[in-house]
Specification:
single chain; two-stranded antiparallel sheet
């Protein structure tokens, strides 16, 4: 890559801040959009008359698209230039946002979310490349503080913004709000970013990409079809799962052949990277999968508005905001094997509360538990990723960063699919109410479905000839369904302690040193989507 000239001063001058502004705008769009959608899932369920497992694909499809383009962005940046590609990513994300707002069915919404993800997945890695070239490695710490603002505020502001937009306008606006931001970011990028100097790049593993992403999507689609099909023997379940599994296994076997594979699985020979990657993967499945359920509980079981649900989620983001900077500083001084287990204890303690959910669990207890979980999350993510990359050689860092990034997105996809399937399967076990059918589909209605419907639309209780005790029983069943799903997530968090126990407990020399300055090279950060 052609290096831009960098200043020797440690201060961030106006030219660097101007470039950082473009990257921050892109980060705000991509990070906010994930957290905004989390509070909209129950709205999509009622709007499109779809199951939780089906609607969760608005997140699963998005994260799979992110995983697809992360390795592509490095190759394409060299081949076509960072400015040009960053503007394409901004345009793709903005167009995808506009198309999401036009969706008439859940299938259309999922498709347009994939388009959004293809753009959003390139914004963060490209943004980091642009900022590193503009400022130089010696000022990357200060730039990360700037970029850290949307990373920290996204989990707090996203659910609140999404809730407010849905309550005061409609769900369409959680996507339409990206249009003016995207247009401003495109104009800003054209004016602020330096001209491109594309050059020949190493070959890209298109065959690997064509096996991994479709393989994961097919396998998870088969898993997601299980609640509606009711049995693994249904063709819609076992066929995509089988084809997907064959593609993923083929990808793993094939990955050791190319010189520049999509994912360099040879890096797993490094013990530290392997332990950190496994810890991160299991943790992300539990945390990201269960994270989608928190707003749904407040909306569907407690009958709160989407804005209130967003506000109730804020303590988790505040907790993470407090510990993430501290964990970042400690990661360079204290071995992760000594800090991460304590952070995981906080997460497990917070999770346990949600395994005991009822219809009237005190909000003070729930918000306090979310805050404790946030404290733990802030002390878990960055240290684990630092450990994964720290002992790699300089030549391996880019491939290691790509590997960790993709594993995180795959973990998020698996978590969203698995937790939504478990919740849907649990809710499907509720008793059918004799003589009551869904007016739009004619399908029989269960006690849990009716109870959730009444919580979101109280007028239904007056329209249907059912006793209040039946609605209470359905609500209890639905709350227990959420609690059962959280038990699975809690078990996965406990499982995370196994690989975490083997993380380095002694300081090890970092190989990520700049040959001339003797300074540590920055690792590409991973945004939690």
């Amino acid at each position: 890559m052609t290096q831009q000239p960098v200043a020797t001063s440690n201060k961030l001058d106006a030219a660097v801040l101007k470039v950082a502004g473009v990257v921050v705008l892109g980060a705000i769009m991509s990070i906010l959009d994930v957290t905004v959608v989390s509070v909209a899932i129950p709205t999509f369920q009622s709007e499109f008359d779809a199951s939780y497992a089906r609607v969760a694909w608005t997140m699963t499809g998005y994260t799979l698209a992110l995983a697809t383009v992360i390795p592509l962005s490095g190759w394409a940046a060299d081949r076509f230039g960072t400015k040009r590609l960053y503007m394409v990513a901004l345009a793709l994300f903005t167009i995808g946002s506009g198309l999401c707002a036009t969706a008439d069915s859940i299938g259309e919404l999922i498709a347009w979310r994939v388009v959004q993800g293809l753009g959003g997945g390139m914004l963060m890695p490209l943004g980091m490349t642009i900022m590193t070239r503009a400022a130089g490695p010696h000022r990357i710490g200060r730039l990360m503080a700037v970029l850290g603002i949307p990373m920290l505020l996204g989990p707090i502001g996203g659910p609140i913004l999404g809730g407010w937009l849905i309550d005061t306008a409609s769900w369409h606006w959680i996507f339409l709000i990206n249009l003016p931001i995207g247009v401003v970011a495109l104009i800003y990028a054209q004016l602020a970013l330096p001209k491109d100097a594309p050059e020949p790049s190493e070959s890209f593993d298109f065959l690997g990409m064509l096996m991994l992403s479709p393989g994961l999507a097919l396998f998870l689609y088969g898993v997601s079809s299980l609640p509606e099909a009711g049995t693994v023997t249904d063709t819609e379940v076992w066929l995509p799962m089988l084809v997907g599994a064959v593609l993923v296994v083929s990808f793993v076997l094939y990955s050791f052949r190319p010189r520049h594979p999509l994912l360099d699985l040879r890096l797993f020979r490094n013990r530290n990277l392997t332990l950190a990657a496994v810890t991160l993967f299991v943790f992300i499945i539990a945390f990201m999968g269960a994270g989608l359920l928190f707003p749904s509980y407040f909306l569907q079981i407690r009958g709160e508005s989407t804005l209130t649900a967003g506000l109730l989620m804020a303590p988790q983001g505040i907790g993470a905001m407090l510990t993430m900077p501290i964990a970042g500083m400690l990661a360079d001084r204290v071995p992760v094997g000594r800090t991460v287990p304590f952070a995981l204890v906080l997460i497990a303690a917070g999770f346990f509360t949600f395994t005991q959910l009822g219809t009237d669990t005190p909000y003070l207890l729930l918000c306090g538990s979310l805050f404790v979980m946030g404290l733990g999350m802030g002390g878990t993510m960055m240290p684990i990723m630092t450990s994964a990359l720290k002992t790699l050689s300089a030549a391996e860092v880019a491939r290691g960063s790509t590997l960790v990034n993709i594993l995180q997105q795959i973990g998020g996809s698996v978590g969203a699919a698995v937790m939504s399937v478990i919740l849907t399967s649990e809710l499907n076990g509720s008793r059918v109410i004799p003589g009551v059918t869904d007016p739009s589909t004619g399908a029989p209605v269960t006690e849990a479905q009716l109870a959730i419907g009444v919580q979101q639309q109280p007028e239904l209780a007056q329209q249907l000839p059912v006793p209040p005790s039946l609605i209470e029983r359905g609500l209890d069943f639905a709350a227990n369904s959420f609690a059962t799903t959280f038990w699975v997530a809690f078990a996965l968090v406990l499982l995370t302690f196994v690989p975490a126990a083997f993380l380095p407990r002694r300081r090890e020399p970092s190989h990520l040193l700049d040959g001339e300055a003797g300074e540590e090279q920055p690792c590409t950060p991973v945004a939690v989507h």
